[in-house]
């Protein structure tokens, strides 16, 4: 009589991996980046994914997440320290799972494409180490009364408009792309 082996532990691991949440982490100053992260998280949840939305500085470990979406506001040409440190500290773990990264600044990647092709300082090096499946730049909420006059002048010359410049249709489309990519796994 043939002996049957139980593969229950392996099946359990596969079930757990299939239900592992997606981390959507963000670093924000004024809340614009958090709003984009919330929208992406909602897109993923509406497509049946378990999601944990949290500030990048509050993430202790990535071990229980199937995938990561990481975003940061850009100030002075750099990601905020919380997001950059999370990515740097976990670059090995991030390189071994699906990752998407986004930046939020005065201009979107579509606007930047016609002006300059420059990522926030340090991001190209992180991209090379992590190899994310997607990287986007979105315009955020611009308060052009706050920066020093040089910053206001530059922002206006580059075509920045005061107010909420988030392109929700582009953000939703990117969230759909992420959900589709995860579904294909």
Helix content: 40-55%
Q: Helical region count?
A: 8
What is the CATH topology descriptor?
Answer: Rossmann fold
Compute the average pLDDT: 82
Oligomer: single chain
Which architecture name does CATH use? 3-Layer(aba) Sandwich
CATH superfamily: Flavodoxin domain
Question: Using DSSP, what is the number of strands?
Answer: 8
Q: Explain this structure to me?
A:
- The protein is an alpha/beta fold and 185 residues long.
- It has a single domain, classed as Rossmann fold.
- The chain has helices at 8-18, 32-46, 81-89, 91-95, 109-113, 123-130, 149-157, 168-183, and strands at residues 22-27, 51-55, 67-75, 78-79, 99-105, 134-139, 141-142, 163-164.
- Strands 1, 2, 3, 4, 5 and 6 form a 6-stranded mixed beta sheet that branches. A two-stranded antiparallel ribbon has the order 7-8.
What topology does this entry show?
Blueprint: H1 8-18, E1 22-27, H2 32-46, E2 51-55, E3 67-75, E4 78-79, H3 81-89, H4 91-95, E5 99-105, H5 109-113, H6 123-130, E6 134-139, E7 141-142, H7 149-157, E8 163-164, H8 168-183
Parallel strand pairs: 1-2, 1-3, 3-5, 5-6
Antiparallel strand pairs: 3-4, 7-8
Helix pairs in contact: 2-8
